[in-house]
Amino acid sequence: MHSSYLKFLPPDLRPDPALRPESAWWNWRGNEVHIERIVRADARVRMLLIHGAGGHAAAVWPFAALAAEQGYEVAVPDLPGYGRTRVRARHGIRYPDWADCLTELIRDRHAEDHRPLVILGASMGGMLAYEAAARTGLAAAVVATCLLDPRLPQVRSAIARRPWLGRYGSRLLSPAVDRVRVPMRWMANMPAMSNDPELTRLVAADPHGGGASMPLGFLRTYLASAPHVEPENFTTCPVWLVHPGADAWTPLSLSEKFFERIAAPKRLTVLDNAGHYPVEAPGIHQLVRALADLHAEIDGRRRP
Questions:
Q1: Are 278 and 145 in contact (CB under 8 A)?
Q2: What DSSP element (H or E) covers 131?
Q3: For a pLDDT cut of 70, what percent of the chain falls above it?
Q4: Burial class of residue 216, CB neighbours in 10 A (0-12, 13-18, 19+)
Q5: Where are the alpha helices (DSSP H) in 148-279?
Q6: Rounded to whole angstroms, how far apart are CA atoms 271 and 185?
Q7: Alpha carbons 165 and 26: distance in angstroms, whole number
Q8: Which of 55, 133, 194, 290 satisfies CB 3.0 to 4.6 Å to 59 for a cystine?
């Protein structure tokens, strides 16, 4: 599965074939959360990589591998409903569960490992990275490919498979249908996942990711979600937005509405020519450079 996604990276960025993730399991509220890890005992900075609604750990392996090659120790959890995570009641998964899971995972790991932590969120994972940093106060930096605030009508229309679903979904969805599971590709605009048709088909058909089914209650609670800390009050850590420049799903203007309000130090890097799943050159090279710059900056803060 990992190699299926790796092949879309430019040849000069494909990682050493010897680089392989380790699997670990974390018991969270009676669910077995699967976590892929690239352990580096010499790493001075850790990274938690968060996938979005069409992803899972193996699907974002290209980005985990690239981060590891920049010196990070990387952990990528399969959030409930995706990947290899085993949940007790799939029909009961709600969006707040994802935020709670990440928050508790960060606190649990921090109790044993005090190295600086970068939280990198892809797609929907960008706002989850922001949320986890706001809740825990334990991040050295947040990096996000998108910062999508579902309270905005423009965001709702963009993320949904049909614009009317984005506009009226929160009214049409009621707790009465929360337990009904549907394929996410019916609800989300998966055809815009990538600018490469082959990669888009792979994501949409992946039974662990874009091809998975989720309860309507997950979508309802996502559309009703609000950040724990409004951006004007967020001062926990720097926020770097590394946004694809050719994103056919969620254009930069949508993320800028939230990003520009953030009070903390921030930096914007536009990944030229990169789609929502950003693997195209030169954008993916710009992402690698940004991760390297951030690692150097955080490591520099630690040195006397």
A1: yes
A2: helix 125-136
A3: 95
A4: buried
A5: 153-159, 163-172, 184-187, 197-205, 216-223, 252-259
A6: 25
A7: 35
A8: 55
The CB-based long-range contact list for 168-175 (8 Å cut-off, 24+ gap) reads 169/219, 169/220, 169/223, 170/220, 170/223, 170/224, 173/216, 173/217, 173/219, 173/220, 173/223, 174/220, 175/217, 175/220
CB atoms within 10 A of CB 83: 26
Going by their DSSP bridges, the two strands 72-77 and 45-50 should be labelled as parallel
pLDDT, one tens digit per residue, over 275-304 is 999 999 999 999 999 999 999 999 887 655
CA proximity to 55, closest of 11, 121, 101, 111: 121
Per residue in 195-223, pLDDT tens? 999 999 999 999 999 999 999 999 999 99
Compute the half-sphere exposure of residue 76: CA atoms within 13 Å on the CB side of its CA: 33
Distance of CA 138 to the CA centre of its chain: 18
- Whose tokens are 């109790």? That residue is 111
Work out the burial of residue 113: count CB atoms within 10 Å of its CB; fewer than 13 is exposed, 13-18 middle, 19 or more buried.
Answer: exposed
- Tokens coding 76: 């990528």
For residue 163, pLDDT beyond 90: no
pLDDT exceeds cutoff 90 at 264? yes
Tokens of 156: 């709702």
DSSP 21: P
The pTM (predicted TM-score) of the whole model is 0.95
Report the alpha-carbon distance of residue 125 to residue 252 in Å, rounded: 15
Between the CA of residue 119 and those of 72, 132, 212, 297, what are the distances in Å?
Answer: 11, 8, 25, 15
How far apart CA 78 and CA 32 sit, in angstroms, is: 10
**Lookup: tokens for 139:** 């991040």
Give the integer Cα–Cα distance in Å for 169 and 187: 10
Exposure string for 186-214, b = 16+ CB within 10 A, e = fewer? ebbbbebbbbeeebbebbbebebbbbbeb
Cβ-Cβ contacts under 8 Å for 304 (sequence gap 6 or more): none
